[in-house]
Write a structure and sequence with these properties.
Blueprint (H helix, E strand, L loop, with lengths): L31 H24 L68 E2 L13 H5 L7 H10 L4 E8 L5 E8 L3 H6 L16 E2 L1 H8 L20 E5 L8 E10 L2 E10 L4 H15 L1
Antiparallel strand pairs: 1-2, 2-3, 3-7, 4-5, 5-6, 6-7
Length: about 300
C-alpha cells in the first residue's frame, strides 16, 4: 500500500530559464559594481519566471495529505486499503467546480459515475449493487438497501424531491467487508437537505438500529470553528457535510453495518459497509474521506 493511500498531486511542469537567454554580445561592458547589479537583476527575473510558471500549473486534481492528518490513520499497517490514484473527471467547458466560489448552489457538472470512488486493490465486484451498463442504479434497486417496511415511503420522498439520477459501485474485500457506494443527484442542494434517507434514524436492511460513530465525532469535534475540510484534505467536504453512523457492535460473529452520509451540493453520498464480527474503523473512515475528496 502506498504511504498515504490518497490521490497523487498532478506534478507541475518545471520551468527553466535558458543559460543563454541573454546573449553575451547584448550585454555591454560595465564596471564591477554595475555588473553585480545586472547579474542580481537577472537572477530575480529568473525567479519570477519560475514562480509564474508554477502558479500557472494548477490543475483540477486531488491533493495528497500527510498520513497523520487522517483521523485514525496515523501509523503504518493500520488496516487501510490501497486505492488507485484518484482523479476528478473533466468538466464541460466553462463549468465551475462544485465547491468553487462561483458555484453557490454546489452543482456538480461532472458525470455522476465519474465521481464514484473506485474499488481498492484486491477487491471483487459485489453484485449487491445492481447497475446498468452505464453504472446507473434504479430507485427500486437502491431501496433494497433499506428495511422492506420503509421502502415505499422513501420512494415517495425521492420522487417528491425530484431525484434525477443514482450511480453506484460495490465491492467485497478478502476479509469479507462489503462496501456499497451510491451517489444520488437532486435538482439542487435544498432537495438534498429535505431527503431523510441517510441519518441516525435510517434503517438499513438487517440493521434496525444505528448510533453515531463516536470515533468520527471525536475527529469532527477536534476541527476548528468554523469547520474546515476534514483532516485538512484540500477539495474535501467540511465536517458539517459528513455524518457517520454504525450499528451497535454485535456479539459473536454476527454482521455489523456502518453508514456514511455525505452531503455535497446537489449530490447525496451514501456509503454502506458490512462485515461479520464488525466493520473495521480505519477502512470505513478512509473510504468516506476519499469519496469526500471526489465530491468536494
Amino acid at each position: 500500500m502506498t504511504e498515504q493511500n490518497t490521490a497523487e498531486t498532478v506534478p507541475v511542469a518545471e520551468a527553466a530559464v535558458p543559460a543563454a537567454a541573454v546573449p553575451a554580445a547584448a550585454v555591454p561592458a560595465a564596471a564591477p559594481k554595475d555588473r553585480r547589479k545586472l547579474f542580481a537583476a537577472l537572477r530575480w527575473t529568473a525567479a519570477v519566471l519560475v514562480f509564474a510558471a508554477v502558479g500557472a500549473g494548477v490543475t483540477y486534481g486531488i491533493t495528497r495529505p500527510e498520513r497523520t492528518d487522517i483521523p485514525g490513520l496515523s501509523t503504518r499497517n493500520d488496516g487501510r486499503w490501497t486505492y488507485p490514484t484518484l482523479a476528478k473527471p473533466a468538466l464541460p467547458a466553462g463549468a465551475p467546480l462544485a465547491q468553487g466560489p462561483d458555484n453557490k448552489a454546489g452543482t456538480h457538472y461532472a458525470p455522476l459515475t465519474g465521481l464514484l470512488l473506485p474499488a481498492p486493490e484486491g477487491a471483487k465486484p459485489d453484485e449487491g449493487v445492481k447497475t446498468d451498463k452505464d453504472g446507473a442504479v434504479s430507485v427500486d434497486a437502491f431501496l433494497e438497501e433499506y428495511a422492506p417496511d420503509g421502502r415505499a415511503k422513501l420512494k415517495e420522498v425521492l420522487e417528491h424531491e425530484g431525484l434525477r439520477q443514482i450511480a453506484g459501485r460495490g465491492w467485497t474485500m478478502p476479509d469479507g467487508t462489503r462496501t456499497h457506494v451510491y451517489l444520488l443527484r437532486f435538482p439542487s442542494e435544498g432537495f438534498v437537505d429535505a431527503w431523510r434517507g441517510c441519518n441516525v434514524n435510517t434503517q438499513p436492511a438487517g440493521a434496525p438500529v444505528l448510533e453515531v460513530d463516536l470515533s468520527w465525532r471525536e475527529a469532527e469535534d477536534a476541527q476548528p470553528s468554523p469547520p474546515r475540510p476534514i483532516a485538512g484534505y484540500a477539495g474535501g467536504l467540511d465536517a458539517r457535510q459528513i455524518n457517520l453512523y454504525q450499528e451497535p457492535r454485535p456479539a459473536g460473529g454476527e454482521e455489523q453495518t456502518k453508514l456514511g452520509c455525505l452531503q455535497a451540493g446537489d449530490v447525496q453520498g451514501v456509503i454502506i459497509q458490512t462485515r461479520k464480527s464488525g466493520v473495521a474503523t480505519v477502512p470505513f473512515h478512509q473510504t468516506v474521506i476519499l469519496q469526500s475528496q471526489l465530491l468536494g
